Fold:
Amino acid sequence: MNDIDPREPMVMLVLNGKSAGDPAVRDAVAQVRKAGLPLTVRVTWESGDAGRCVREAADAGATTVIAGGGDGTLNEIANVLAGLDGDDLPALGLLPLGSANDFARGAGIPLTPDGALALVQSEPARPIDLLRVSDDQETRWCANLATGGFGTQVTVETHPELKKKLGGLAYVLTGLTRLGQAEPLTARFRGEGFDWQGAFIALGIGNGRQAGGGQVLCPKAVVDDGLIDLTIVPDEPGDDSDLFSLLATALSAGRAAALEQIGVCARMPWLEITAAQPFTLNLDGEPMQASRFRIEAVPARLRMHLPSISPLLSPAGKDGHA
Structure:
């Protein structure tokens, strides 16, 4: 761990402790420092460490904070940054080191440590939206995708050892084995110009596009349009076998046409969900349970280093005008 020199611009890598001994990460950090980038590394050990590191970086005037870990680490650091005051917050970078890396894959961020750190050096930080998710008790932020129903069940039930061995494929395999066993939930969804009520087996509320190791629930979402992308897969009466087969194809292949065929799709700046019983939304894989949620797309809440040709950028964002 190196000390911070407050006189020079600095980039901080907040590294999940599970990856601290990864040789590829150590080599990539060494190469970045050799090239002259003032990179400070902090390693998390327990709950709350990431928040303290991010606040330390912001207080020191860091230009960028890099989340070194999976989608949960990205969520934690984005939540801390979004909760800070000021107009000159550090930009967000991502060094994907998780089992699924759904945001990184959807955004086109390199999955190798050297490639991800090179992206932070070469690409400017661009404005991105965040989803602000509130219930009666708290408000949290979501950088990628909030999921409910089938997708949430798959994420919770995927065995940690299977994730360790197979990465994102573990979610797909678990999901396929659970098809036909999904328990529908019932809720009302209301947004600007939108009102739908009924039973559903899968739900995606997108800033990004995919979760659960490649389940593409919001295939047209972008992170800089100020809108939520909503996909609801209703529980239709009748023979479920065709629905589950089509759902499996749509989720694993990310086929927008298949999702639109079986689902209810809409885009809006805000969304309210009301259910008779509490249910779980997974925010970037982090569970939040309530019977009522309000979700808002907050435009340009953070700046993030993304590839200029990222699928998650709108045409204006790709051109640098977002």
About this structure: Residues 165-177 have pLDDT under 50 and may be disordered. The radius of gyration is 19 Å.
